[in-house]
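Feature request disguised as a bug report, sorry. It would help if multi-protein outputs had a clear separator. Right now it looks like this:
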Amino acid sequence: MDRQKTAFNKVNFILLAIGMAFIILGFLLMTGPGSTEGMFEPDIFSARRIKVAPVICFFGFIFMIYGILKKPKKD
C-alpha cells in the first residue's frame, strides 16, 4: 500500500504535542484562588503565576510554530 502524502509527518506531530503540553502546563500554573470583594488573595501576584507560567506558555507556542513550519524530510 502506498502512503498518502501529508503536510505533517511524525516529527511534526510530536513537536505539536510537546507544544500543546507546554501550553496546558503553563495555563495550569496560572490557575489558583482569586481575590474576592471581601478578601484579598496575595497569591495572585506570585512569581509562578505572573512570570514562570507565561514563559512556559510562550515556549509552548514557539514549539507549536516550529512544529507547523518544519518541513518533513524527503524519503
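(second protein starts here, but nothing in the output says so)
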Amino acid sequence: MEKKMNGQINQSCPIVDLHASWLALNPIHGCINSCKYCFLNKYNIRGIKPNILVEPKAAYELLKASEYYCENFPLCLFTSTDVFATKMNIDYCLELLELFSVNKLKNTIV
C-alpha cells in the first residue's frame, strides 16, 4: 500500500481499487490516531496527518472512469483513514457524498 518516508505518505496503492466484494475509494490516506488494533498498522499510515490525494470532484471522476466501476457493486469509502478523525476528513466526506447525491450515484455505500 503506502509507506511513510520522512513523515510523508508515499502513495503506492490506487485511489480506486477492486476488492473481493466491493470497490474501494480511498482519496485520503493516513490517520492521526495510533490505535494498536488498527489494520492501518501494517501499512504504516497511522499516527500521521491524513493526506488528501485528490479533491472530491476528482475522486468522483476517477471512480466513474475506473474500468472496475459498476453501479451495482458496493462502494467502500475511506478504508485508508478514519473519516471522522479530523474536520478536514469530515468536510471531504460531506462534499464527496453531496457529489454522489447530485449525480444520483446508485451504488450501495459501505
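Even a blank line would do. Unrelated, but nice: Confidence is low (pLDDT under 50) at residues 1-10.
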